[in-house]
Amino acid sequence: MHISYNEIHQAIADCVEGKDVYESFKPTLIIAIGSGGFIPARMLRTFLKAKCGKSLPIQTIGLVLYDDNLDKYDPDTAVVRKTQWLNYSHGEGTGISLQGHNILIVDEVDDTRKTLSYAVAELTKDAEKQRHEYEARRKEGEPEWQQPKLGVFVVHNKIKDKKGSLPADVLESRYFKCMDVPDNWIVYPWDALDIETHQQRADERRAGERAAKKAKVDGDQ
Amino acid sequence: MHISYNEIHQAIADCVEGKDVYESFKPTLIIAIGSGGFIPARMLRTFLKAKCGKSLPIQTIGLVLYDDNLDKYDPDTAVVRKTQWLNYSHGEGTGISLQGHNILIVDEVDDTRKTLSYAVAELTKDAEKQRHEYEARRKEGEPEWQQPKLGVFVVHNKIKDKKGSLPADVLESRYFKCMDVPDNWIVYPWDALDIETHQQRADERRAGERAAKKAKVDGDQ
């Protein structure tokens, strides 16, 4: 299925509004999973800014699904590898602490869920390490560690058996998807070599969906 | 001026094709300046992939123009600050070396040039540091340090006095801009709260530009 930029932009707007992403989770930090999450994360920031009045910081992490057998990519055996990660060290002015943040992890698609599962697990480990370090140096009277919360935001969730898992509390209350889709190939606009043809196909798909919906409504009456 | 996603996508395609971005520079690494460069960088990768047959890695750096006087943002006094940077340390599997890379730094706009100037200067310093470290540990017979090359890619270059500068060799042969624009406010699609209205305005602007161009051609004849 071909999907246009404007459709994705609108789907994110509708999700933020319809699913109370800001009101229910109050994100304070966006983490975009590169490269699929770059574009949705930047779009999302606009709609969160409309809610909270400020541009949330976006940090990025680079993750690739990597298969040692390069001839045949197999989602069952593929493993996730980091290509870029957050900097937690204080020295260089770019070090961040996860403490107290409500972190919204953004990707374009929840496919096998391996990448999201890995991102959440790694960030959870990092937070735990930071908590230990904080508590080791915390003096009496200083505030207690504030546990960060992790949430997930995706444009598309593919309906399929997932190879990766997410913590129950994330899935139950902090997992935001713009839409569920069947397990078909999604053609994102940023991969289009010819954006005019891509747009036409996206428009045709939408027209077909509308006609099918109308036919169903008419048939139900 | 309002500009649509598809226009930006097409402008990047045209620039890669018309200005021989791949053929003349052979980029091996994309560095997106966040957050403005996230979307153009991801679009750009598609057109470079069509040239070289593989998805170039995208690393991101976060830069903000920051003014201590928060009431009144002044481009003359604003300074650039890092919010995220590259990781060069080897320990965690995400450390990268700049050595030998042709690095294309991507942002949406060359406005005051302060941000681009800062990015190029910092990466040049980092490369110099890596060169020193490499040469200090290089044993006889091992290959010599390969100097990385830096290039710049922007969607829009605003015609104005620039507050920041770029090295002459970058400006002369490795500075790629999709288009020059007057120093007016550019409304990017990712900032649109209402994408339909935004698209209409972008379409009207384009129609106006086409009409003006046609009138000029007719007048010249």
Q: What does this protein look like?
A:
Two copies of one chain form a homodimer. By secondary structure, chain A is an alpha/beta fold. Chain A has a single domain (5-183), classed as Rossmann fold (3-Layer(aba) Sandwich), CATH 3.40.50. Chain A has six helices and six strands; from the N terminus they run ααβαβββαβαβα. A six-stranded mixed sheet of chain A has the order 3-2-1-4-5-6, sandwiched between helices. In chain A, strand 1 (29-34), helix 3 (38-52) and strand 2 (58-66) form a beta-alpha-beta unit. In chain A, helix 1 crosses helix 3. The first copy, chain A, starts with a helix and ends with a helix. The interface between A and B is large, with 42 and 42 residues. Chains A, B: InterPro entries: PRTase-like, PRTase_dom. Chains A, B: Residues 201-221 are annotated as: Disordered. Chains A, B: GO terms for molecular function: hypoxanthine phosphoribosyltransferase activity.
